[in-house]
Amino acid sequence: xxxxxxxxxxxxxxxxxxxxxxxxxxxxxxxxxxxxxxxxxxxxxxxxxxxxxxxxxxxxxxxxxxxxxxxxxxxxxxxxxxxxxxxxxxxxxxxxxxxxxxxxxxxxxxxxxxxxxxxxxxxxxxxxxxxxxxxxxxxxxxxxxxxxxxxxxxxxxxxxxxxxxxxxxxxxxxxxxxxxxxxxxxxxxxxxxxxxxxxxxxxxxxxxxxxxxxxxxxxxxxxxxxxxxxxxxxxxxxxxxxxxxxxxxxxxxxxxxxxxxxxxxxxxxxxxxxxxxxxxxxxxxxxxxxxx
Length: 292
Hints:
The N and C termini lie far apart (87 Å). This protein folds into two domains: 20-135; 149-291, 3-Layer(aba) Sandwich (Rossmann fold), CATH 3.40.50.450. The chain has helices at residues 20-38, 51-68, 73-78, 99-128, 158-170, 188-194, 224-237, 268-279, 286-291; strands spanning 149-153, 174-177, 201-205, 209-211, 219-221, 242-246, 261-263. It is built from nine helices and seven strands.
């Protein structure tokens, strides 16, 4: 017994996204194709074909690809409009009527192209009524101006916090110290969300607590909330936009062993933080870095 062939899965391309100007051009091209079909003289057919009919088929295919993209669901829906030529399967000695079926094919093609125009007009209406940037499909390639705001996460070492905050202000940044922000019943993560325009964080790892494995010797470590926020910012902003500064002897948990940190025990941390901010896209006045 012969086995049936497995079903073929046709993969369609994603919908082509057009600007309003491109949609207007597409509507004009479809108008031209419709006019060419309506003015076509079927009496010029020779054996069911003519150079003009072949040219019209190619022009319709090109216009549909420009308007809807190649192999998209919309393109496949309107592609039958290219089926203009009547291919007769009649075998016999009598004359074949090519005029009537070709005229019918042209009428079907005109109807499909008008439906394609209606689809584009609906897309154009969607553009005009879009209320949010997410609804717009026009890509804005203008350079983004980075906000001069930086999160500062700290523990109990107020001296380290003030030193870093003062350094950031001298460089022209606005330090956002989360624990100074009004709570309003919000968690730290909700405070972060309220400052969604901030794209860099400095996390201070200072020996505020002690901890060890059961039966071990207590070692200095950063507060647990600081480590939690460090992990949060690494996930939210990425490693290239988080700078960890370590003061004194602090145990670094194994989960953060791969995180690059700079020591605050000397003066080199200022240059290191400046480089991290510059690598993140911020402009840095190195004269101010060296003077502070």
